[in-house]
């Protein structure tokens, strides 16, 4: 499998300046990170507030450029201005707040905005809009005004907007943080379907541990570095280590961990209720 | 001493084609010292309801009584109500604006007309309560982490010395440790200072672990009202309105089906662990 996102010794400094432009302080948000994401993978990135997840994500979409090191998206160096359009078309980004990402007056117009900017012929724009809305199950609501939609529906419209650009990779920065449980389910279901069916590479940043159990690999960030890397099973086996990084594990895993501490014979890294029930009975 | 809602209705954009009924005939009594979880999906009316409790929104019809007085009477002192009923909005850190943490927390009590010394004393104790270190007092609030910013924003409300604290999704967007810190703080305020707390949340785990009473809203009305055990025992009904019981409850039920005699009313891990252990022991005998 070829790599779709690759960072080599990526470092990013936020430099704060006073009114005269003198440097007041430097915060290294991403510190020497090298990672390699293969095409079609489902990657989850965990980490506490301020660990550098979002800064890292913004490099993949060329919103930020490395202070040191290089980021390649589909083989193209993101800091080369000539690659900007290709990089952004290849790697789409979804943010936390659904209200900040929708601009159209009706759903289908909003979804068509991206391909229109790419100079796609009108006929094809409509075709892409339809495909994208169907992929996130929002086609029935295409004529609605986005501000009449629920949070989960708005997020799915945003995802359709990215899909219409025909990206190979989608980066989602806490897409479910502002949603209710039903909205969360809808969005996660859509993301998994895009990965399974359309083979789109997914990079999901989240604080919700339950959402990461289907990922192929998890990266845990701390102080701008990759602190842990592995499959969900490997990562969630280390309950204490995660807690020391201000994180936790899914509820089921935590229950199993507590039972194990109380003396039961259970394997580490139980991720689903079925597994736990099977082990107990 | 209590808050009473009497047939409260609120309609947005009444009299236009965009009219929408956000609250429909809500009657409710909240006693002093209660810890209440308010749940419901987006658009069910939770935020509209809590904004009535400190007079930010006025009812279309119906009344709200705080300690026996109608808060929408023309001669009611709404300013004193806002001091006593503190509302922490969603993402309260977006409202930080001062140049340093300490001044930001001083803003509320200063507006209430306290003298300088009193303002500073209350701000100091509020920041202590939320666990912000002294060396962060004169830092710009924008240089703090997400969890710290949120605690400073909460301190801004606590500096008004509220008797009722309403928090609208206080843990959204925080990492798990940040979430535990905020909830621990709220628990402490409730337990030690006897503050009445209303927690609006989308996390059933957070609600199950903390509150004594849950109010479930749906389409602007009250769908259920009871203890966590009562409410989560009715998970089938919760699912019809897009909510669910905590994960643990479902596991306990599945174990029961498999013939393990566990407590299916357990809603937290602390309740589940001893129940599973004793059921396993009983089976071995």
Sequence-ordered SSE layout with sheet pairings:
The complex is a heterodimer of chains A (281) and B (285).
Chain A: E1 3-17, E2 23-38, E3 42-47, H1 53-60, E4 68-73, E5 76-77, H2 84-90, E6 91-94, H3 107-117, H4 122-135, H5 151-163, E7 169-173, H6 181-196, E8 201-205, E9 217-222, E10 225-230, H7 232-236, H8 239-244, H9 251-261, H10 273-280
Parallel strand pairs in A: 3-8, 3-9, 6-7, 7-8
Antiparallel strand pairs in A: 1-2, 1-4, 4-5, 9-10
Helix pairs in contact in A: 3-4, 3-5, 4-5, 5-6
Chain B: E1 2-12, E2 20-31, E3 35-39, H1 46-53, E4 61-66, E5 69-70, H2 78-84, E6 85-88, H3 101-111, H4 116-129, H5 146-158, E7 164-168, H6 176-193, E8 196-200, H7 204-210, E9 213-218, E10 221-226, H8 228-233, H9 235-240, H10 247-257, H11 269-284
Parallel strand pairs in B: 3-8, 3-9, 6-7, 7-8
Antiparallel strand pairs in B: 1-2, 1-4, 4-5, 9-10
Helix pairs in contact in B: 3-4, 3-5, 4-5, 5-6
Describe the structure.
The complex is a heterodimer of chains A (281) and B (285). Chain A is an alpha/beta fold. Chain A has one domain: P-loop containing nucleotide triphosphate hydrolases (Rossmann fold, 3-Layer(aba) Sandwich), CATH 3.40.50. Chain A is 35% helix and 25% strand. Chain A has 10 helices and 10 strands. In chain A, helix 3 crosses helix 4 and helix 5 packs parallel to helix 6. With 285 residues, chain B is α/β, with parallel strands linked by helices. Chain B has a domain of 40 residues. In chain B, 41% of the residues lie in helices and 22% in strands. Chain B contains 11 helices and 10 strands. In chain B, the strands form 2 sheets. In chain B, strands 6-7-8-3-9-10 form a 6-stranded mixed sheet, with helices on both faces. In chain B, strands 2-1-4-5 form a 4-stranded antiparallel sheet, with helices on one face. The longest helix of chain B is centred in the middle third of the chain and has 18 residues. The interface between A and B is large, with 38 and 37 residues.
């Amino acid at each position: 499998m070829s790599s779709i996102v690759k960072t080599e010794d990526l470092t990013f400094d936020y430099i704060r300046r006073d009114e005269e432009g003198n440097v007041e302080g430097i915060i290294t948000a991403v510190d020497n990170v090298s990672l390699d994401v293969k095409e079609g993978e489902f990657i989850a990135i965990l980490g506490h507030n301020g660990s550098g997840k979002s800064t890292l994500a913004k490099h993949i979409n060329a919103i930020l450029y490395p202070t040191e090191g290089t980021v390649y998206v589909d083989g193209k160096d993101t800091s080369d201005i000539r690659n900007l359009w290709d990089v952004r078309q290849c790697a789409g980004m979804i943010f936390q707040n659904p209200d900040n990402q929708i601009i159209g007056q009706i759903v289908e117009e909003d979804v068509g905005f991206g391909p229109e900017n790419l100079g796609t012929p009108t006929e094809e724009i409509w075709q892409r809009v339809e495909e994208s809305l169907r992929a996130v199950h929002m086609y029935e609501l295409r004529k609605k005004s986005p501000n009449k939609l629920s949070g989960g529906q708005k997020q799915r419209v945003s995802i359709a907007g990215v899909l219409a650009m025909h990206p190979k990779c989608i980066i989602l920065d806490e897409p479910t943080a502002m949603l209710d449980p039903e909205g969360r389910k809808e969005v996660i279901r859509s993301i998994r379907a895009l990965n399974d069916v359309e083979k789109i590479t997914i990079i999901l940043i989240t604080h919700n541990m339950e959402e990461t159990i289907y990922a192929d690999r998890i990266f845990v960030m701390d102080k701008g570095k990759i602190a842990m890397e592995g499959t969900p099973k490997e990562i969630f086996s280390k309950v204490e280590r995660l807690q020391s990084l201000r994180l936790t594990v899914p509820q089921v895993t935590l229950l199993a961990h507590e039972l194990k501490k109380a003396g039961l014979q259970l394997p580490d890294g139980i991720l689903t209720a079925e597994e736990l029930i099977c082990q107990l009975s | 001493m209590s808050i009473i809602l009497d047939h409260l209705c609120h309609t947005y954009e009444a009299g236009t084609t965009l009219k929408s009924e956000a609250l429909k005939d809500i009657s409710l009594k909240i006693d002093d010292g209660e810890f209440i979880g308010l749940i419901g999906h987006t658009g069910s009316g939770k935020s509209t309801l809590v904004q009535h409790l400190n007079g930010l929104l006025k009812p279309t019809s119906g009344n709200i009584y705080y300690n026996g007085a109608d808060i929408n009477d023309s001669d009611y002192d709404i300013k004193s109500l806002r001091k006593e009923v503190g509302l922490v909005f969603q993402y309260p850190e977006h409202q930080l604006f001062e140049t340093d943490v300490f001044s930001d927390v001083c803003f509320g009590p200063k507006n209430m007309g306290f003298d300088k010394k009193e303002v500073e004393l209350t701000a100091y104790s509020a920041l202590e309560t939320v666990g912000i270190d002294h060396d962060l007092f004169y830092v710009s609030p924008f240089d703090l982490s997400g969890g710290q910013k949120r605690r400073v924003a909460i301190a801004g409300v606590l500096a008004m010395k509220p008797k009722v604290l309403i928090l609208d999704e206080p843990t959204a967007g925080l990492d798990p440790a940040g979430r535990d810190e905020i909830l621990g703080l709220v628990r402490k305020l409730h337990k030690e200072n006897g503050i009445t707390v209303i927690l609006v949340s989308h996390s059933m785990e957070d609600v199950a672990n903390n509150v004594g009473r849950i109010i479930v809203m749906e389409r602007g009305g009250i769908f259920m009202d009871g203890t966590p055990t009562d409410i989560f025992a009715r998970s089938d009904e919760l699912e019809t309105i897009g909510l669910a019981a905590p994960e643990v409850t479902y596991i306990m039920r599945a174990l029961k089906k498999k013939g393990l005699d566990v407590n299916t009313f357990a809603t937290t891990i602390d309740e589940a662990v001893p129940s599973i252990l004793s059921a396993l022991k009983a089976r071995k005998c």
